[in-house]
Amino acid sequence: MKYAQIPLGPLQTNCYLLAEEGGSCLIIDPGGEDGKLNQYINEYKLKPIAVILTHAHFDHIGAVDAVRNKYDIPVYIHEKEASWLLDPALNGSQRFQYGEPIRLKPADGIIAGESAMQLGAFSFQVLETPGHSPGSISIFLKDAGIVVAGDALFSGSIGRTDLPGGNHEQLIKSIHDKLMVLPEETIVLPGHGPATTVGNEMDSNPFLNGF
């Protein structure tokens, strides 16, 4: 499997394209600039099959409907934030005002709890990692050695917890119980900034002392 990290939107949120041999791909967190994203997809002759959202903050969902409509693909989100797609007060677009308030169509697929998922050729484990937001998830692709962590864990940092529904203690527990137990060589693909590994964060992340 190959992946591409494409910063998009007003906060340069990392959108990820995960591609299998043959070109089928998952789109994770298309935060904006759908034209830039489409250009990349066309250049590498990729075939999107689904959008997965690690959570529903405005900077992760700005291009969802544009991408969904262009490729006629389903959108998946955790049940605790399904209503956020429709509500600018919940997804933060009303509060932060980086553009027009975001009101999207409902998700096509609702993720309830932790489970193994299969979408086309992609097999992965959904990990519930709340704390940054109530319905935050991480996507663990064991065979590829990759976890897409959204805004739970960053290189040398962790997600903010001062937004509605955030909880610092819950976030630390999520990282400890769900992410730090993964193999140390697992590549962590965060919602902002550079990729890292579980081992690197165990050793040097100042927010995770004692792991």
From TrEMBL:
**Which co-factors does it depend on?**
Zn(2+)
Gene3D superfamilies (UniProt xref): Ribonuclease Z/Hydroxyacylglutathione hydrolase-like
User: Key word Coiled coil present in the record?
Assistant: no
Give any GO molecular function from the UniProt entry.
hydrolase activity
Which controlled-vocabulary keywords does the entry list? Hydrolase, Metal-binding, Zinc
The UniProt record lists the Metallo-beta-lactamase domain at 12-192
InterPro entries recorded for this chain?
Answer: MBL_Glyoxalase_II, Metallo-B-lactamas, RibonucZ/Hydroxyglut_hydro
Entry-linked CDD domains: metallo-hydrolase-like_MBL-fold
- Stored SMART domains: Lactamase_B (SM00849)
Tell whether Chaperone is among the UniProt keywords: no
Descriptive protein name = Metallo-beta-lactamase domain-containing protein
Organism from which the protein derives: Cytobacillus horneckiae
